Structure formats: C-alpha cells, structure tokens
Amino acid sequence: MASKYDLVVIGSGPGGYVAAIRASQLGMKVGVVEKAELGGICLNWGCIPTKALLKSAQVYEYLTHAKDYGINVSDASVDFKAVVERSRGVAGGMSKGIQFLFRKNKIDHIVGFGKVTGKGKVEVTNEGKKEIVEANHIILATGARSRELPNLPIDGKKIIGYRQAMVLENQPKSMVVVGSGAIGVEFAYFYNALGTKVTIVEFMPNIVPVEDEDVSKQLEKSLKKAGIDIMVSSEVTSVDTKGEGCKVNVKTAKGEQVIEADIVLSAVGIQTNLEGLGLEEMGIKTEKGRVLVDDFYKTNMDGVYAIGDIVKGPALAHVASAEGIICVEAIAGHHPEPLDYGNIPGCTYCSPEIASVGLTEKEAKAQGREIKVGKFPFSASGKASAAGAKDGFVKVIFDAKYGEWLGAHMIGANVTEMIAEVVVARKLETTGHEIIKAVHPHPTMSEAIMEATAAAYGEVIHL
C-alpha cells in the first residue's frame, strides 16, 4: 500500500528542507524524497563547504601577512588535504544537523529519485526498486548543477566543475578559471591565496558582471594586486588535455592566446535539474529551463508546486528558503506576501567580499530616475584601518525625488554581514535621512553605510 502524506517534497536543498520543516510546523505530515545527502548541494557541495575552504585561505593569508600586524610567524605552510578534510567535515556536520531537524519535526526521509507520475503520486526509485508515494501536495525542489559548455566538457580530472574543485587530491600549481561570477572568483581567491597561479577568463567586459561597475573595477584591482591574472572580453575556445596539463586557447581582442595550466575550472553558471521528474509526461509547463509558477509557486498542474533554482528569480539558497516558506504557507491557507525579487541580497565571499541589493547605478539611470549617489571608502574607516582591511567601499543609491533607497553595493571585509541592514531598511521603506539619524556604533565597518548615505545627501563628516 502506498504511503500517504499531506506534502511530499522532491529534493532536500535549502528550499526543500525549509519547506518541509515549515509544513510540519503547520501540522502537515511530510516526506522528503532525496537520493543523496540531506541538505542538497548548498550544504554538501556549495555554500557551506566553500566557506570552510575560504576560511582556511583567510587564516593562511593572516599568517603570511602577520608581520604587518607586528607578529612574527615562521614556516607557515598549507596542508591541502587537511584543508579539504576540514571542509568536508563542516559539510558533514551540517547534513547531520538536517537529519536532526527531520527527526525533531517528524519528517520522513524517503531515499531515492522522485518522479511525478499522476495527480498526488510520486514514483520513488532506489537501487532499481520502485515505490509509489501519495501526497495531497507535491513540491519540486531539485536545484541545479554546473553548466557545461560544448567547447569545455567537464572530465572531472583536468577540466573540472565546482564539485571537483572542492575535493582535489592535490593542490594544482596553476589553474585557469573560466567565468567570474560568484563561484569563479571565490575559487580563484581560494587557490591563489594558497599559492596556485590563477588566471580568470571572463567573456564580459567586467568581472562579476552582475554587480555595479564600480564594484567590478575594485574587485579586479584587488585580485590583480593579489597576483591573479584577469582577462576580460575573452573567450575560451578550446582546451587541449592530451599532454600532462592543459593548453587553454583563449580568443581575445588582440587575437588568440594559449595559456598552460594544470587544471581548468569551468564556472560558467548553472543548469537546472529537470530531467526525469515527469514534467513532460504530466504536461507541467517550463520555459528556458525553468518551471513556470504563479506568485505562490503553483504550477499549471493542480497540487504540484516548484521552488528554488528551477523557477524564476536568482538561484540563491536564501531565495529558495523564502520561496519554500511562502509556498507551504499558501498551501496551508495562510495569506503570505509574494516574494519581492527586487529586494534580494547577493553575496560573494572572495576577498574582498561583495554584497549588494537593489538597482545598480546604471540600472537606476536606465529607468530614467533622478538619483542621489553616495560612496564611502573603507580607507576612511577607522575600523577598517585598524583591521588592515582598507580595500573597498560602500555605495548607496537613492531616488532624489521620493527618497526611496534604490540600491546598495559594497565591497570589502565582512560586507556580507552588513547588507542585511539595507534589506530590512528597504523592506520598511526607510529614507536616507532616517539612516543618517540612526546612530551607528563606532568604530565599525557598518557605520560606512551611514557615512555613504550622508555622502549622498551632502552631509558626510569623515570625507
């Protein structure tokens, strides 16, 4: 006899497990179909283990620059295997944490691969065996994987994706990173900090191309200062892997160049996991690799919903989590607000870090808005000077007529911990003058937000 649930979630990434827990809190009987580790890509192969790697790189950087702080350290060296093992241990601990939350909330982990086979029916395949699970509601939360380019096929050895980049057996002496989005620049920073010679190749005119141009220029300057080679407006046309290493053919404005490297990391974005879910058979509509949903994540098939990387919006863990909560609250008959995709923070954890939300200056001007722009460099921050982290700035953009906070763009140490102030302020429709009059603690990096706002309104004190 088929198991019966109020809700079955296919996939246990941040959107999936958060949706499951919230549904359980609302009194639903919940099952989660997951063939791999609980927590999905984010906890096991994405957000969390990469931050552990980056922390190791940061600690090593502190040790190698300890003299700048009046501390003498000798013979600091990298144990690459131990760095990787620590990262995997952190990921394993987080996955065990999800197992605990499932037990606490009485959520069933249904091991296997899930496929929608009819109204309220999920076929689960595990080691060749199939079973049918029944549910009043089904949420698809299957996430995404590394996108492969035809001219850059990932072989897992010389041309790798982010998963292999986290668990290489040996540290490469040289690496070409193709793509300079968050994944690309984070791994570029990590490997460069540990001593690998890194070259970034970016097709667009600026690295981190989704960011404000001022942020892109500052990051390029900082990464070059750290010893990373950067090629923009360039394209990898092919990679020859026949020899010991890789010969990377790069098309640039000045003609073809060949770069030799041990490893090529393909970081050219992600591809949604939609295969085998029964979408075509069930007539569930998709467009450009995304499932079409309404504001509460309902598909065109009654009782089937989709959240996370496989639907509209940025492919970010915190977005998937928010979507999961909204989706199950709507299912439960509550009346949640639709998610405001214009107020989603984005964070990149290279060094210096990047954090942003809202419109860039270019986007605001393209909308024909009259704007006020304020910028405060960390070189003028007492806390940044004391910490030896003067690279970067906070940039804020306000509507000149109505005072609406249109966007904020930060680059510097710990800015990923600062962006939430802007997200909350924008949610509460806070004006620039309210930020200026809100007393910020001194000395902190966060007071740069107030200083940048004061600069936008011609009231800055410390510039």
Automatic annotation (TrEMBL):
SUPFAM superfamilies: FAD/NAD(P)-binding domain, FAD/NAD-linked reductases, dimerisation (C-terminal) domain. Its main location: cytoplasm. This is Dihydrolipoyl dehydrogenase. InterPro entries: Class-I_Pyr_Nuc-Dis_Oxidored, FAD/NAD-bd_sf, FAD/NAD-binding_dom, FAD/NAD-linked_Rdtase_dimer_sf, Lipoamide_DH, Pyr_nuc-diS_OxRdtase, Pyr_nucl-diS_OxRdtase_dimer, Pyr_OxRdtase_I_AS. It catalyses: N(6)-[(R)-dihydrolipoyl]-L-lysyl-[protein] + NAD(+) = N(6)-[(R)-lipoyl]-L-lysyl-[protein] + NADH + H(+). It is an enzyme of class 1 (oxidoreductase). Residues 5-324 form the FAD/NAD(P)-binding domain. Keywords: Cytoplasm, Disulfide bond, FAD, Flavoprotein, NAD, Oxidoreductase, Redox-active center. NCBIfam families: lipoamide_DH (TIGR01350). Belongs to the class-I pyridine nucleotide-disulfide oxidoreductase family. Residues 344-452 form the Pyridine nucleotide-disulphide oxidoreductase dimerisation domain. Coiled coil: none annotated. It comes from Adhaeribacter terrigena. Binds 1 FAD per subunit. It comes from the Bacteria. Pfam families: Pyr_redox_2, Pyr_redox_dim. It is found in: Cytoplasm. Its cofactor is FAD. One of its GO terms (molecular function) is dihydrolipoyl dehydrogenase (NADH) activity. The active site is a redox-active disulfide bond. Its EC number is 1.8.1.4.
